[in-house]
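Friendly challenge for the regulars: who can give me the structure tokens for this chain first? No prize, just bragging rights.
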Amino acid sequence: MTYLKSNDLFESIPTEEIYQRIPRPIVIADHLMTPDNMGAMIRIADNIGASEMCFLGEESKHSLGKIRRAAASSRGNIHWYFTEETNLRKIVPEGKRIVAIETADNATCIYDTKLPEDAAFIVGSESHGLSEALLKQCDMVVYIPVPGPTRSLNVSHAAAVALFEWQRQMNAEFRIPHYRHLFFDLDRTLWDFDAAAEVAFERIYDKYHLHELGIPSAHEFHEVYHPLNEKLWERYRADQITKDELNRTRFLKPLEHYGIHDVELADHLSEDYVYWSPRIVRLVPGTMELLEYLKPKYHLHLITNGFEEVQHTKLSGSGMEPYFETLTVSEEVGVKKPNPEIFLYALKKAGATPEESLMIGDEMAVDIDGARAAGMDQIFYNPTGEKVEGERTYEVRNLLEITSIL
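First reply, four minutes later:
Bragging rights claimed.
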């Protein structure tokens, strides 16, 4: 075991991530007397990520230089100030509950008390504690049990214990996950499936002279194909049709829309489409930048319902392959998303647990619901911003927003 700098150890727990879920606390100290304690209070307020450190009392009575020296690097990291205001409600924003850390007759043990999410903590002076006038303004009073022979805590030590007990409670309720493994869906999450398909349709439209058969344009043919293909994929995911039936029917139905009943042509279109669509590289904006950002920090994996040979072609031709350690395709597993078994299979293949893993995908019912059923957290990639019912851990509208979460 070797020494590790705290900055390196806690690098994966940014303050912003914690306070996406809960408001930042405020710390208040009543008429402290010593610069060392005041500097220590600034330091602990900075450590916990408080929004401000407020000292009740006259600024002129204190040596600001000594306070700054005691606060060390924290003196410039957090807003700290003095005020002679005695009405706490003029200091504390509306909605915050004021929690006194004091051994008062109405105090409850901090370890048996549910602390509020939106809190302002106040401690008293070294000699006299909190005044009765201030205690009456507080919403809650908690004490810290001291089992040793000296039954009083230094004011900065008491603040540290209370603030980190508050953070522990918040983390228990709003768990701060420490992900090691990220699992991505491929089509429409990283691979721009529709853009590649449009180009593939232009090629098969020209090759087979579909305009001579009464199909006005490649774009219109794709517009007819798309909803029919989506319904067939729903049936394929539900094991109602086979891969071969999907491949044939998804072109036979659009042809029949134009009165063309040609099974052989449908087979040729399907074969060419399967060949061309994975070779026409179109990535969702931000894909390579995101992978470049994530690769040094996480183990990256893919889970896809696509056909195995097609998905491998997409990865090798797009330059994405080196970023991923494993690829799990539904064909190899025998089940498809959203069945949680495919997620559990992928986890085992990656040597990962659900608790340390995060699924990123664009389909709520397929990627997000399936991952949640397997015990994984999820990021729902929702580029349109359309309101989609369903539970998810996070939601983003563009891929690079993920860098603010990870």
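The longest helix spans residues 218-237. The mean pLDDT is 92. Your move, everyone else.
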